[in-house]
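Module 6 notes. Inverse folding takes a fixed backbone as the condition and produces residue identities as the prediction. Think of it as a translation problem where the source language is geometry and the target language is the twenty amino acids. Below is one complete input and output pair. Work through it position by position during the lab.
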């Protein structure tokens, strides 16, 4: 089987070479952006881990401070119940309606004082 060739004129050859080079530049630019994204993603994960550690340390310090401070009951409201309600709210992502309802409940509790 004989190989077939297509002869290109000089301007066509130069145009084709330019297009290949432009494509290579674009691909290298994409690779460069992907590598930069991966580096930023790694930095983000490291910072998230550090932030979580700081948050956990702060929570431990707050718990220790809570144990050291004197506790009082205010009109039937036990402090631990109030704290546990806030912690439960922070655990899940609330919808706008849920947040509105929680704020209304807090207002009702305050008006009962």
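Target side of the pair, the amino acids:
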């Amino acid at each position: 089987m004989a190989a077939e060739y297509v002869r290109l004129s000089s301007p066509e050859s130069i145009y084709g070479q330019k297009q290949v080079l432009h494509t290579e530049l674009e691909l290298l630019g994409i690779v460069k952006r992907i590598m930069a994204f991966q580096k930023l993603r790694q930095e983000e994960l490291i910072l998230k881990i550090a932030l979580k550690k700081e948050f956990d340390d702060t929570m431990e310090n707050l718990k220790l401070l809570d144990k050291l401070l004197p506790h009082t009951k205010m009109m039937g409201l036990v402090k631990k119940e109030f704290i546990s309600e806030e912690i439960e709210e922070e655990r899940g992502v609330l919808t706008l309606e849920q947040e509105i309802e929680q704020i209304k409940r807090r207002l009702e509790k305050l008006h009962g004082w």
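Reference fact for the lab report: The longest helix spans residues 10-68.
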